[in-house]
Amino acid sequence: ETGVTQTPRHLVMGMTNKKSLKCEQHLGHNAMYWYKQSAKKPLELMFVYSLEERVENNSVPSRFSPECPNSSHLFLHLHTLQPEDSALYLCASSQDGTGGYEQYFGPGTRLTVT
Amino acid sequence: GENVEQHPSTLSVQEGDSAVIKCTYSDSASNYFPWYKQELGKRPQLIIDIRSNVGEKKDQRIAVTLNKTAKHFSLHITETQPEDSAVYFCAASVGPALIFGKGTTLSVSS
Lengths: 114, 110
Prior knowledge:
Chain A has strands at residues 4-7, 10-13, 18-25, 31-37, 44-50, 53-57, 64-70, 73-79, 87-94, 104-105, 109-113.
């Protein structure tokens, strides 16, 4: 359960704020992912990083900006969000970025945009 | 792009019955098909997966079947128990990513 950690676990922010979500994996994996989970779209892929390079950007608005400084850390920088961005943001990691391996999820950050 | 359809969206069974969840995918290049279970308030966790060179895989009460020609795969849970109650997601690989279905909420009543 501690293989992938996320902070903070809960975040409330106004539409003009800037905040960052952090994910860390302790599994020695080479690929990391951001997902958005909401009632409308239960597991929506946002970004994929393989060996610290972004390999997939699933048409996400520019108000979400990912950063992967090394293979163990992944950030999601947030600015000028909208209320519809309120959701659970899940980070995941996998052995590599081929898509053929199990993804291990973190516990998520529950984001509320007011 | 890849589209993964999952049915049914909700499923209610009595304890001891079997449950079947079905998924279809559109990208013939997909070759990895995992199933995840998400209990309320918890993270999704892998319960079983199958690769395109295999037609069926079983792990105790859980089994998955894959029909590559028809582009569909199914999850079978036998002898269901109340602790099987959760949301189940199927997924198909597309390049470096997994595309998930919309989930099935399984309720097992005792």
